[in-house]
Design goal:
Elements lengths: L1 E7 L8 E4 L12 E2 L11 E2 L1 E5 L6 H15 L26 E9 L2 E9 L4 E8 L6 E9 L2 E6 L1 H4 L4 H10 L6 H7 L6 H12 L1 E4 L4 H13 L1 H13 L4 E15 L2 H6 L5 E16 L2 E6 L5 H15 L9 E4 L8 H12 L6 E5 L16 E6 L5 E5 L11 H6 L14
Parallel strand pairs: 5-16, 5-17, 11-15, 15-16
Antiparallel strand pairs: 1-2, 1-6, 3-4, 6-7, 7-8, 8-9, 9-10, 12-13, 13-14, 17-18
Helix pairs in contact: 1-5, 6-7, 6-9, 7-9
Length: 424
């Protein structure tokens, strides 16, 4: 589970900005928080949801992109060693143009707390560091630094006690500039390297990011419907739960004749044609009405229904019962969806039997209803005079637990509103 994430010198982020999933004590709505499973350590409750507001171009999407960078780098294959890393520095400060971007993740996995630091440019990994906190005590696993003299490594006692110096030296030599040391170590280890495999599993697989709309997800959903009837039933059930009256989804194969005219044959016999057939796959959704059922093709559905169908995949994969702690990251969750459907999805997430985490951006201020979320679950982004994103929690501003957050937001009490110049 994510505890905290920090970023600096990345896209619109200049100075270090931090998003925290640590719950503020003594706030109401205890169903919105959960106790992390930690062995031998007491720790504050964590939030199930964080919502990020702010004007257009204030850095909301950049925050989510930053959250996905470490996973994207952790997931790189050796064949991608010559492809630039997905890192872009802050552009409005010339002194930072050639400096690395910095990312820091605090998280809990398999009953243990970790901290992972990454510094990188588009050309190379400049530094990476992994700390574990058994029973709350800091313990270095390893640290890698790139210096003008070359790569330097430090290893903690938990690694040096169980692994030979020759093996560690081999892993160091195998690690190219654009790949993580932890990725190379895990990939080349034939042993149960729990010290590194457990945190690497979280870095590589824990989150599901939806940052470019639902178009790709809807295409995947249609392929799943085609391959597995059970998944088609699951998607239909998901749609019904958010008030889309779908009784079933199926795929039909339509054979279409194609007429091809051979040029030489056409000259000799203009009326003679050869025929071929081509197959077209169509997704059909059956709607329930008071007058009966009716079929609609996927192309005839609303954008909202299409997006919901695509959202099913990231939604179900965040469920820890499917084998992993899951963090779902969504840019513009409210895209083409009615505010009540978005609120219903969040409520279902909060009330799920097993806790998972959801972080998303939105412009839908109806979600600021104090009956659904807590003050510490709302975050605001805004650009300062240098063009840099500032990230703040609404709970940082003075206010009551039960105040009208939406009203105060529009009054400018939390800042983060667009400044619109009106023509005279």
């Amino acid at each position: 589970m994510l505890i905290e994430f920090s970023v600096s010198n990345f896209r619109s982020f200049r100075e270090r900005q931090t998003l925290s999933m640590v719950a503020t004590p003594r706030l109401r709505k205890r169903e919105n928080v959960f106790k992390p499973e930690l062995t031998g350590e007491k720790f504050p409750d964590l939030l199930k949801v964080a919502v990020i507001y702010g004007p257009n171009a204030s850095g909301k999407s950049n925050l989510l992109k930053a959250l996905s960078v470490v996973q994207e780098i952790a997931d790189r294959e050796p064949s991608t060693r010559d492809i630039a890393l997905p890192v872009v520095p802050f552009r409005f400060d010339a002194e930072l143009a050639n400096q690395p971007s910095f990312f820091e993740l605090h998280f809990i996995h398999s009953g243990l707390r970790y901290q992972f630091n990454l510094a990188a440019t588009s050309e190379r990994i400049v530094g990476e560091k992994l700390l574990a906190f058994p029973k709350g005590r800091e313990s270095l696993l390893y640290e890698r630094q790139h210096t003008p003299q070359g790569e330097t490594y430090s290893f903690g006692s938990s690694l040096t006690a169980s692994l030979s110096s020759e093996l560690l030296e081999t892993w160091k030599k195998l690690t190219p500039p654009k790949l993580l040391f932890i990725a190379q170590a895990v990939a080349n280890s034939s042993e149960e390297l729990v010290q590194l495999k457990a945190p690497f599993d979280w870095l590589q697989k824990s989150s599901f990011s939806v940052l470019s709309g639902m178009k790709t997800m809807t295409a995947i959903a249609q392929r799943l419907v085609e391959k597995d009837e059970r998944l088609a039933k699951d998607i239909a059930t998901f749609l019904r739960e958010v008030d889309v009256p779908i009784s079933g989804i199926r795929v039909e194969t339509i054979e279409t004749p194609q007429y091809q005219l051979n040029a030489l044959t056409a000259l000799a016999s203009p009326d003679e044609k050869s025929t071929k057939t081509s197959s077209t796959i169509k997704t059909i959704l059956t709607h329930m009405t008071a007058l009966g059922e009716a079929d609609l093709s996927f192309e005839d559905e609303s954008d909202g229904t299409k997006n919901l169908m695509g959202f099913w995949l990231p939604w179900v994969t965040k469920d820890p019962s499917r084998g992993s702690d899951r963090l779902l990251i969504v840019d513009e969750l409210d895209s083409s969806l009615h505010p009540k459907i978005v609120a219903a999805l969040i409520e279902k997430h909060i009330n799920a039997e097993l806790p998972s985490q959801l972080i998303f951006t939105t412009h839908d201020t109806h979600l600021m209803d104090a009956k659904l979320l807590r003050r510490d679950q709302f975050w605001i982004t805004e650009r300062d005079m240098n063009g840099a994103t500032q990230l703040r929690s609404i709970h940082d501003f003075e206010g009551r637990d039960n105040e009208d957050i939406e009203k105060r937001y529009y009054e400018g009490r939390y800042r983060g509103l667009p400044l619109i110049t009106r023509s005279q």
